[in-house]
Design goal:
The structure holds two protein chains of two kinds. Chain A is mainly beta. Chain A has two domains: about 5-45, no CATH class; about 95-290, Sandwich (Jelly Rolls), CATH 2.60.120. Chain A has helices at about 15-20, 25-35, and strands at about 50, 55, 95-100, 110, 120, 125, 135, 140-150, 165-170, 170-175, 210-220, 220, 230, 235-240, 240-250, 250-255, 255-260, 270, 280-290. In chain A, the strands form five sheets. In chain A, strands 3, 5, 6, 8, 11, 14, 15 and 19 form an eight-stranded antiparallel beta sheet that branches. In chain A, α1 (about 15-20) crosses α2. The N and C termini of chain A lie far apart (about 40 Å). Chain B is mostly beta strands. Chain B is about 5% helix and about 30% strand. Chain B has two helices and 19 strands. In chain B, strands 4, 6, 7, 9, 13, 16, 17 and 19 form an eight-stranded antiparallel beta sheet that branches. The chains are: A mainly beta, B mainly beta.
């Protein structure tokens, strides 16, 4: 997610930093927060801890099951599975919308400004840089194919190694991270629903190799008063291994907080995160999901 | 299935009135096999095997998706061309199907083959190819099936430019749920099913507490998305009479076997692997 763990400021600034998770850069957030030094109760400083070599937090709220904290380093690590090749370079079906085919990012805009993207396309590959990007189009229920490649040689550890993310409706994150020989808190592992649901398996390939996500997403539904009727659901197949199976999402994902829904319309953009690491993407296509055939 | 009567449908007229009007010609009559003397589906709109149910949109799948996908490290390889040791005939004897290179072909009228092994919730990869040149029509064209526990069928059929009742076409949950789209490839080409299956559960009083649930990607295209089965698919077991509405009549343990159906057509299979899913471990 947005903030790197090592740069969190204590006291008052933490509140601003938290809100900054959805904003652009930590630096900007801090400068905005300084004038607002009003009598706000001081939030405790986040305490990062390490358990069995895994960095994380236990000063965060509990998940709804009451068992694990958000980003709990003690939460069991997903079992490691060595994947085969699966949908690498899968050609899009005829009813797919190609979002990136190696040529340009004309289907994308900078998420914060709505202007041109800060990412570059080199040798048919888009590399994350400068800011998040999101599609110009909005989508409801969908099937999404994405391929990504982690930097090699790997740099950093935990959440600092090859961090990016696929945001459905711009707000529900499927984590992108280099979890090959890299431990992090389970709910922040590759193919996890960030801060909520670890993947069923760690099917990461080594950095430098292309990896695939095949996602099925159902949007959440709200009534006219904004009450949640049905949550969002996601199925994630990571390198051909089922990592999430129609998993109910608990709301917008964020750093150190449980998921929380705020009402949205029936569609939203797909976003890809820039998280200070240069993660490469290629062959991205989406199929708006047909409505069931008159059941 | 065994026998049909046919229903004439003005499908072209119903679906493309503007085209018809523009061309000023009568729509061709189309014959789709099916039934209307069957029970209604639970939603009350269509009969089981209703030929009038809308045909799923035809799309062209990508040239490649998971064809030839090697098994992940925690998968059990059920067939890789080196024999049928993981399989037996439906009545318990040796599996009688013919292997040839990397594939195995049904032995028409030799019965289905089923795994020795059983799994509860699982991910299954199967590749299959319909006979080429194609023979027959509707349910007689390259018919086979993935029969989970001989009760829950994902239909295998040559549905490439070939119509049948929608709840019986390729990638349908037979007699219940047509695929969201028709993502069939031509006969002779290898097609993929990537299936996620959750077994049904009964409590100690044999009361159903969880339906079977299935997700199917056909040639990389989502055709069933977490579909909750209404019960066993019909026409397969003697205690679920042919053409009747389906239900969970027979409680069984969650661990189920995989059977490949012999429906008298020579259908080929290759590269079959399965891995258990430990659902709920990430809640």
């Amino acid at each position: 997610m947005r903030m790197h763990l090592k740069i969190i400021l204590p006291g008052l600034l933490c509140l601003a930093a938290l809100s900054g998770c959805a904003s652009k850069t930590p630096v900007v957030v801090r400068s905005q927060a300084l004038p607002a030094a009003a009598p706000v109760p001081a939030a405790p400083k986040p305490v990062e801890i390490t358990i069995n070599g895994v960095d994380g937090f236990q000063d965060t709220p509990l998940q709804p099951d009451g068992k694990w904290h958000v980003h709990d380093p003690a939460r069991p690590q997903p079992p490691i599975v060595t994947p085969g090749t699966f949908s690498d370079q899968a050609t899009p079906p005829s009813d797919a919308i190609v979002l990136f085919n190696g040529k340009d990012l004309s289907q994308w805009r900078d998420k914060a400004t709505g202007g041109p993207v800060g990412w570059r396309v080199v040798d048919g590959v888009a590399v994350s840089a400068k800011g998040d990007i999101q599609t110009t189009n909005q989508f409801g229920d969908l099937q999404l194919h994405v391929e990504f490649r982690e930097p090699t040689p790997p740099r950093g550890g935990g959440q600092g190694r090859g961090n990016s993310g696929v945001f459905l409706m711009g707000r529900y994150e499927i984590q992108v991270l280099d979890c090959y020989s890299n431990l992090t808190y389970a709910d922040g592992a590759t193919a996890g629903i960030y801060g909520q649901h670890p993947p069923l398996a760690n099917a990461c390939r080594p950095p430098g190799e292309w990896q695939t996500y095949d996602l099925i997403f159902n949007v959440p539904h709200f009534d006219a008063a904004g009450k949640l009727l049905t949550p969002a659901y996601v199925t994630v197949i990571h390198n051909g291994v089922v990592a999430q199976n129609h998993q109910a999402i608990r709301g917008a994902t964020n750093w150190r907080v449980p998921g929380k829904y705020t009402p949205t319309g029936p569609t939203g953009p797909i976003a890809l995160q820039y998280h200070n690491n240069p993660v490469a993407f290629r062959n991205i296509w989406v199929r708006p999901m047909p409505v069931n055939n008159e059941p | 299935m065994k026998k049909y009567y046919t229903l004439l449908l003005l499908v072209g007229l119903a679906l493309r009135p503007s085209v018809v009007a523009a061309q000023g010609v009568a729509a061709p009559l189309e014959i789709i096999d099916g039934y209307t003397n069957t029970p209604m589906e639970p939603a009350g709109k269509w009969h089981v095997h209703d030929p009038g149910r809308p045909q799923p949109e035809v799309i062209t799948p990508g040239a490649t998706f998971s064809q030839g996908a090697p098994a992940p490290s925690d998968a059990e390889v059920l067939f890789d061309g080196t024999g049928l040791a993981k399989w037996q005939s439906a009545n318990g004897g040796p599996a009688a199907w013919h292997t040839n290179g990397d594939y195995v072909e049904t032995a028409p009228r030799g019965g289905g083959i089923r795994t020795h092994g059983k799994w509860a919730d699982f991910q299954l990869h199967v590749e299959w190819a319909s006979p080429n040149p194609p023979r027959g029509t509707s349910q007689g064209r390259g018919n086979s099936g993935i029969l989970i526990n001989d009760m829950y069928e994902v239909q295998v059929l040559d549905s490439y430019q070939a119509k049948t009742y929608p709840d019986g076409q390729a990638a349908a949950i037979y007699g219940q749920s047509p695929p969201l789209v028709n993502a069939s490839k031509p006969p002779g080409e290898w097609q993929t099913y990537d299936i996620i299956f959750e077994s049904p559960r009964w409590n100690e009083d044999k009361k159903l507490i969880k339906q079977a649930v299935i997700t199917v990607l056909h040639n990389g295209v989502v055709v069933q998305n977490h579909y909750e089965l209404q019960g066993g698919t019909d026409g397969i077991n003697g205690d679920v009479p042919y053409k009747t509405a389906t239900k969970y009549a027979r409680p069984h343990p969650p661990e189920v076997f995989i059977e490949l159906q012999d429906h008298t057509n020579p259908v080929r299979f290759r590269n079959i692997w399965i891995r258990s899913l430990h659902l709920g471990s990430n809640l």
